[in-house]
Amino acid sequence: MLKITDLYASVAGNHILKGLNLSVNAGEVHAVMGPNGSGKSTFSKVIAGHPQYTVDNGKVELEINGQMTDITPMTPDARAREGFFLAFQYPVEIPGVPTSEFLRASYNAVCRHHGLEEMDPIDFDGFIRAKMKILQMDDKYIDRAVNVDFSGGEKKRNEILQMAVLNPRMAILDETDSGLDVDSMKIVAHGVNTLRTKRNAMIVITHYQRLLNYIKPDIVHILYDGRIIKTGGPDLALEVENKGYDWLIK
Amino acid sequence: MAEDDDKQKKSPAAAPDAYKYGFVTDVETDTAPKGLNEGIITFISDKKGEPVFMRQRRLEAFHHWRGMKEPHWANFHYDPIDYQDIRYYSAPRKKGGLSSMEEVDQEVVKTFEKLGIPLGEQKRLAGVAVDAVFDSVSVGTTHQKDLEKLGIIFCPISEAVRTHPHLIEKYLGSVVPYTDNFFAALNAAVFTDGSFCYIPPGVRCPMELSTYFRINAKDTGQFERTLIIADKGSYVSYLEGCTAPVRDENQLHAAVVELIALDNAEIKYSTVQNWYAGDKNGKGGIYNFVTKRGKCAGHHAKISWTQVEAGSAITWKYPSCILMGDHTVGEFYSVALTNNCMAADTGTKMIHIGKNTRSTIISKGISSDRSHNSYRGLVKIMPGARNARNFSQCDSMLVGNNCSANTFPDIQVHNNSSTVEHEATTSRISAEQIFYLQSRGLNKEEAVALVINGFCKEVFKTLPLEFAVEAVRLLEMKLENSVG
Amino acid sequence: MTYESADNRLIIHIPRGTKPTDVIRLPDHGAAALIHLEAGAEAVATGVLSNSAIEVILEDGAKFELLRVAEEGPGGSCESTLTVRQSRDSVLRSFYLTRGGRMVKDNLYVTVNGEGAASFINGLHVLSGDSQAESRTHIEHTAPSTTSHQLYKSIVRDKAHSIFFGRILVRREAQLTQAYQLNKNLILGPEGRVNTKPQLEIFADDVKCSHGAAIGQMDEDQIFYLQARGIDREAAASLLVQGFIQDVLSQISHTALRAEVGRHLGP
Q1: Residue C265 lies inside a defined structural domain of this protein
Q2: Distance CA B24, CA B33 (A)
Q3: Domain coordinates of chain B in residue numbers?
Q4: Would the CB atoms of A106 and C243 count as touching at under 8 Å?
Q5: Does the CB of C201 have a partner CB in chain B at under 8 Å?
Q6: Domain total of chain C
Q7: Does B422 contact C at CB distance below 8 Å?
Q8: Residue B423: beta bridge partners?
Q9: Chains A, B in contact: 3+ Cβ pairs under 8 A?
């Protein structure tokens, strides 16, 4: 589904990713863990195509129409329309733009690209409200401006709601657990789990093992200094929880 | 020319305000008669032994000034200044020849000691080179020899006019031409002393350079002129302090300060201004009309102004930055405190000309009693200043209900790649707040200091440490009787 | 409600406690009007105006909402003035909209003169070509516990020029006043220009006053966020402009007036 080969990337002249390799198949959930400053956020931004990050070397291939295709030259919106999704660590506030309008614009952009019929506001309203139930979200919230005056938990739920609406094949969840209390985390994790299928894949980026109790990964990677330094099963996350990162770095 | 023995002692009106720098030094002086004409200008130029070009410039400035009108757009009123009723030159008599510390009148040396600025070799402040200006002349500059070894020139400007005429001719008036404004023209005609600094390429000045201005003589105006040039890749931090005796008459101080930073150079200029502010009924005090401007002429240059304005009956002052070079940075950090009947109209101008230029403005105004405190600022982004950024924060604090706090920003953006943000708030320091803090065990002074410190924190942290401590003390002292 | 004309001036009088439900339509062009709401009266008015001078008196507890649209061709100039005097507990909502012209200028004077009175003053400039618009507001608080809230926005395309000059004056008597003013500008044209002068003059110490001004362009983080959801750059930009406008339109409380603004802005 996703294959990252020898990826080097920098931001404002600072080299952050230094030869990262990662391969994800359909149906799999991978966890990427690492201490602060290891390059976790850069990793997600680069895959999503943030313009401030430069890919200096390597490839990011996404399966598009059964073909592995290098997406690094593609704009962020083109990537999104091809089924890639990033749940942001810090979702941006967009004053004045109602959440419902934004979601419909986004959903229809993807539909248009795939030659599917666009949804009118009334149908979309029904569609979105059903999705919101899964995440136990208040109805009023779709009339509010995107992320404006949302609590930390609401912002994270909004990210997962968008994922539910767009139904991506490849999603990266960037520290979705940060700033969440246990109850909110359970709700978010439940939302994510209902979206798990044999046909899609996810990468969960996290600093702590906590979230992985609720979203069970198949494979765990440790990112350090811009590279994957260790890969293992779910046990690796528990080991990190108990022993910290130091033993891996030495 | 006339001699004037000034025997006036401390005015009784000063007592309740406790302006501790309000004493008068009894010293023999050389003074010019009152009035302003070509003869006086020639007299000043002769006294300073200036080259012909300097005298010509003074006369040109004087002729221009005669055609100008005093500006009255600022947010305060004052009785008309009679420019013919001012002495434009007053200097303590020298016992012998040219400047050597031993020859300076001991009364003057004692004055500076009393102000906390020892000038003698043994007692001089470590880490700070001081140029001490008494009325119209510099009476001594410390650490000059140490600085010379690094190629740094730090001397009275009147000396630089004689010893470094090429630098003076090239740079003096290049940032603030005499045509700039009424007071700048007046200063260009009659300036008497001030400091000159030149930092050669690549040199990081190892100590703070500072000038201490003292007005002593009666009926005298002080027209200081300072010029600082930081050559490519150099750095200098400069401090300025000012005090004056308590007198019932207003005295005029019209200074011009010019800074020039070439490629990659940085100048940090800090002021603690504590001129006599008049008594609590507004009698007396210094009229402080100052033009301060820096030019970031080269790329990646930086000029940073920090000011604590706590004195003067009237302050009219807008230390500004012309951000000419690409990637240049301008900063303005200001605390202006007014009490009794003082008026301050102060702020800055940030003129963005080069690409990727940045400026920051942090202004804190505190007004109490019957005073008026205004922030006035201009941020101008020229069409060619692509990707320019400015952030301004202008906060006011009112102490009591008879004062005013005003904010007059002017923002002009002429391209679509720049971002400017301006924020302003007002708040107050109330008797209840102070009571609350007192009930937690702080005494009143500590409580006031805590609130003021919190309010001004962002500015104080940009001051050199000793200055910051002094600035806090100064504000505490001024506000002691104002908080209900 | 009565209408009368005197000295070429329209006088609209809304008696004590009455609340006409229909939106009052002010006549076009060259209008001079006095609108007087007696105590407890409530009314909503709108007009497409060029040169105009409107005076409003709000007595105790009166509530008035006014939408003024200054419509000029690209070469036309006009100047309008709105003067409002507010008594105790009255509420004013004013919205000014213009797409500019050679020089389209508005002057707004509000005296918040009764305890508990509140003023909500908003405006929008949507400028393109080489059009110019200038809004001047002067809000004077002369009584205690009064409120004013101003939001002016401008969108500047091409070589257009938007000017905002806002003055808040809080008199010594006006303790416990809250005054807030924000001017936000989006410059989209490479030669677009914005001048803003938000001014505060405060003479009372126990008040909450703040103002802000921001001039900028599209926020690249917002664009990226929308792009990451499959929306292309152009659509994302247009969504953000809509959002920028929506924020100020939401200040209009009367739905018919809001719809009217939408009509004037066009598709």
Answers
A1: no
A2: 20
A3: 12-317
A4: no
A5: yes
A6: 1
A7: yes
A8: B393, C212
A9: no
Confirm whether C73 is domain-assigned.
Answer: yes
Q: Which two tokens stand for residue C247?
A: 């924020």
Closest CA to B251 of B87, B92, B138: B87
Q: Report residue C174 as tokens.
A: 């006006």
Question: B58, B324, B354: which is closest to B186 by C-alpha?
Answer: B58
Residue C106 lies in a domain: yes
Q: What number is the ipTM of this complex?
A: 0.87
> Domain of C13?
2-218
Whether residues A110 and C230 touch (CB distance < 8 A) is answered with: yes
Task: Give the gap in angstroms from C-alpha B76 to the nearest C-alpha of chain C.
Answer: 13
Cα Rg, chain A, nearest whole Å: 18
Domain spans in chain A, listed from the N-terminal domain onward: 2-249
**Distance to chain C for B413, nearest Cα, Å:** 5
Touching pair C, B by Cβ (3+ pairs < 8 Å): yes
- B417 close contact with C: CB closer than 8 A: yes
**If you count residue pairs, one on B and one on C, with CB atoms under 8 Å apart, how many are there?**
112
Yes or no, beta carbons of B430 and C200 under 8 Å apart: no
Adjacent-strand bridge partners of C139 = C110, C168
Type of residue numbered B78: Y
Q: Is C219 on the interface with B (CB under 8 A)?
A: no
10-residue stretch averages of pLDDT, chain B, 484 residues long = 40 50 78 90 91 94 94 88 90 57 68 74 69 78 86 92 94 95 95 92 92 81 93 94 78 94 97 87 90 97 95 94 97 94 95 97 93 95 96 91 92 94 86 71 73 84 80 78 64
Find chain C residues with C-beta within 8 A of B418's C-beta: 215-216
User: Is C214's Cβ below 8 Å from some Cβ in A?
Assistant: no
Find all residues with CB under 8 Å of B157, minimum gap 6, and list them: B138, B168, B191, B193, B194, B195, B196, B225, B226, B227
* CA separation for the pair C225, A49 (Å, rounded): 11
Q: What is the pTM of this model?
A: 0.83
Tokens of B148: 């010379």
Pick the CATH number of A2-249 from 1.10.357.140, 1.10.1790.10, 3.40.50.300, 3.40.50.10490: 3.40.50.300
- C29 in Cβ contact with C57 (< 8 Å): no
